[in-house]
Amino acid sequence: MSYTIALFLVLLGTLCSFIYFFRTLTTNKNDRKLPPGPAPLPIIGNLHMLGKLPHQSLHHLAKKFGPIMSINLGYVPTIVVSSPEAVELFLKVHDIVFAGRPKLQTSDYITFGAKGMAFTQYGSYWRTVRKWCILHLLSASKVESFAPVRKAEMVSLVESVRTMAAKGETLNLSQQVGKVVEVIMSRVIFGRCFDDEIEFRPLIEETMYLAGVFNLSDYVPFLAPLDLQGIKTRLKRIGNGLHAFFEKLIDEHERGSKNIEEQKSYTDFFHVMVSLLNRPMNPNEENPYIIGRENIKAIMVDMVAASFDTTTTSIEWTLSELLRHPRVMAGLQQELETVVGRNRMVEESDLPKLTYLDMVIKESFRLHPVAPLLVPHESTEDITVNGYVIPKMSRILVNTWSMGRDHNVWSDNAEEFIPERFEDSSIDLRGHHFQLIPFGSGRRGCPGMQLGLTNMRLIIAQLVHCFDWELPDAILPNELDMTEKFGITLPRANHLVAKPTFRLVG
Ligand code: HEM
Question: 445 CA to middle of ligand 1, Å?
Fold first, then answer.
């Protein structure tokens, strides 16, 4: 029976896609000028051209077809943007039209049909949630107020690495960094860390992988019931794990909140939000949004997913590049010695003076943007950009990975890691300089930039200042494996491992 249904679906879909395919060809030729791009196949469009590392395949295709390129992902018209001038048109000049997000199977299972922020449609619910998260978690004053949490976690990080160094052990830096980011962010979001109650990291890593993977069900909807890649099954499993955990936390809060004294002391993001359960999030506005359990769980998933993996991956790549370039590592240690001295750890107040560190981080983001295609945007109406017609509900992929390697922008040495290229340069990371936008730009740009960057700067500075690092098994710096693993973020395919030696005096 299920075989008959599957066969019927495939035949019906094939027929529809041939009709669609020939209509697209004739329409494009006659009266609509889509951006140039490779010819699509029926049903799958250009999906077969993406390979295991789609950002790299799209980079090569854009060299042939240009910085505004049109492809078909299954039935979804998609525009790939790969130059600073083109990105400015999409994320600044016409930002409002491209501030939509596509509807994805991932958000159905993980955030209850996009009740969080990152995959929510542009509009008043998204605006309310974004404002709320900035006010209670991401504003400059909030980020500043978490300094004691960061300080305490830096002390335990250095202590635990020092113990390993004393034993002459090799350290899995990827895991160690992942753990410290998880603990800091859990304390910041939930007011506590969870020890072994929940292994967040594997769940979040899997979420980020599945959110980035090109899911056939999103692009060829008639195949969705067959779940050919097994993605739906995996999404259900992760969604259930995360939601059960947040349910338990909400229940705990509800039991605790009967105690009025305890209620008064709630200051962390999660508890402030749960205190609003079944009440409006924006009581003073025309359209109040009542906060239910699903909203809370979806927003928490978004905060956890958007912060753990991005920050960890950014630190991992920066440390990898430092290990591959002993000259740059020595330059950074020299700066830290001058600013901090050899007899103490780095303090947050040192960070503004670490200008070489900032250049190192920019250079790392240039070559390893954590979200190589940003988070997909979607056009909310038909629009003409640079003379090309972009239909409503087109998916927009901004290839920041490709832009970081553009020889016209970064000169012939674009593939090399040279932080000094940012010396005397006004380029910053805030999304105003379109050649370097690791946090995106415009309305949908990352609201957690300051929180992410502060964690990143502090952890890198601490690890580089307090320890010398050596690659294991006599691996030479230029032999360090730099293979990427594609998802919505782009982590290392293999963990970074190195041997620390404590280098502070005393
Ligand atoms: C180094 C760390 C980080 C990097 C590199 C990063 C990067 C990004 C990028 C590229 C986007 C997509 C922008 C676009 O689509 O145009 C994004 C969106 C987002 N980020 Fe971050 N991020 C980081 C840390 C954080 C942190 C710490 C949080 C919050 C706790 C956060 C919350 C978000 C949210 C909620 C969105 C979706 C915004 C929306 O759709 O309105 N991020 N981030």
Answer: 7
Number of domains observed in the structure of the chain:
1
CA distance linking residue 363 with residue 119, whole number of Å: 29
Instruction: Give the single-character DSSP code of 69.
Output: E
Residue 16, phi then psi, degrees to nearest 5: -60, -40
Q: Which residue, among 55, 61, 116, 71, has the nearest Cα to 369 in the 3D structure?
A: 55
Half-sphere exposure of 58 (CA within 13 A, CB side): 30
Q: Is residue 23 part of a domain?
A: no
3-state helix, strand, coil in the chain (%, to 5): 55, 10, 35
State in Å: Cα 222 to ligand 1 middle.
32
pLDDT for residue 37: 98
Confirm or reject: Cβ of 444 under 6 Å from ligand 1: yes
Range of the domain at 236: 33-502
Residues with pLDDT less than 70, the chain: 1-32, 195-198, 257-266
Q: Is residue 365 part of a domain?
A: yes
Residues facing 45 on adjacent strands: 41, 73
- Indicate whether 206 belongs to any domain: yes
pLDDT at 29: 46
Nearest residue (by CA) to ligand 1, atom 10, is 439
Could you tell me the CATH number of the domain that includes residue 106? 1.10.630.10
Residue 468 burial class via C-beta count within 10 angstroms: exposed 0-12, middle 13-18, buried 19 and up: middle
446 assigned to a ligand binding site: yes
The answer to the question of residue 21 being in a domain is no
Indicate if ligand 1 lies below 6 Å from the C-beta of 136. no
Residue 171 to residue 161: CA distance in whole angstroms: 8
Taking the C-alpha atoms of residue 189 and residue 206, their distance in angstroms, rounded to an integer, is 21
Beta bridge partners of 70: 79
Best CA proximity match to 321, nearest among 369, 374, 373, 368: 368
Q: Encoding tokens for residue 383?
A: 């629009």
Query: Are the C-beta atoms of residues 207 and 305 closer than 8 Å to each other?
Result: yes
CA distance 397 to 376: 5
Ligand 1: centre distance to CA 361 (Å): 17
